[in-house]
User: Fold this.
Amino acid sequence: MRSLIDIDNFSVEEIDELISVAKDIIANPAKYSEKCKGKKLATLFFEPSTRTRLSFEAAMLELGGSVIGFSEASSSSAAKGESIADTAKVISAYADIVAMRHPLEGAPYVASLNASIPVINAGDGGHCHPTQTLTDLLTISAEKGRLDNMTVGFCGDLKYGRTVHSLINALSRYKNIKLVLISPDELQIPSFVRYETIEKCKMEYKETASLEDALPKLDILYMTRIQRERFADADEYERLKDSYVLTPEKMELAKSDCKVLHPLPRVNEISIKVDDDPRACYFRQVRYGKYIRMALILKLLEEASSPKASVRFDGENYILDKLTCTNPRCISQTEQELARIFKITDRSAGICRCIYCEGKQRF
Ligand code: CP
Assistant:
């Protein structure tokens, strides 16, 4: 049995297979309309969502299955203090597969350790959003016909944008991807992506604050929203919120076959006047999201009958109950019963990472 917590959980071959199945579903929907008959998806959303929750629900319904769940923490027993581990055990008695979104980083991972059914991370704080990454990859593949040999520009909130971090991570595994990172200084890509993905994988990249300078070279422009909910300082959000606005005038600088993606929701970083430009893909991207989630549900349910891999945190490779995670957004900060476990990632430099949120710590 497998879960999807981080895009790294799947190999490139598995991602390519999911994309291929999603394209087959688009071409032959009737072939798949009863594949999940009798199966139930639980959508546990502790944080707001439109696309992710509803596309998961539409995906399961179009596969002939059914859906249960909740769309806000206040309508679940989390409001009475029930832990994620207990919630996961309870849901395993009612459903065959779970999609979970939670504001705390690592919550879906905790659920996967405790559930007896596959768990899909539908977004955990600023950490990961692997099904958005699968959506983005299917969109690029369908719109450009390839996933390699491209210059990809990421624009806006590169610091808090979990979709940006996950997509860069996924693209690092394809050939000849050049990155242009467009952001104000305050919202530059975090060091864990810069050093541990971009530089480690020797990806060619440059940073700029100017969208106009970057646009003419791009094959893909990935716009993002400045994420108000992740800012501790409201004044800083107000100062940065309109850093970039894509307009029809700016689109005149872009290549004729450049494709504009956005995970949505947008606030005002793309003028609605761009929507009719054939290069604007973001509403088609929403549709691709449903098809890739159909392919994902099929894959995880097919593998659900195989035994769950046992996870062993040995004292050789992990530090057990000695350190406390300092990330205030980590699930281990609020769930006091959780074991404090850090994976040693660089023994010679004395660096380890919290297994829930991947926050870095020295030991
Ligand atoms: N892209 C995305 O995750 O949208 P929602 O927050 O509406 O699910």
Summary: The pocket of phosphoric acid mono(formamide)ester is lined by residues 49-52, 123, 132, 263-265 (CB under 6 Å).
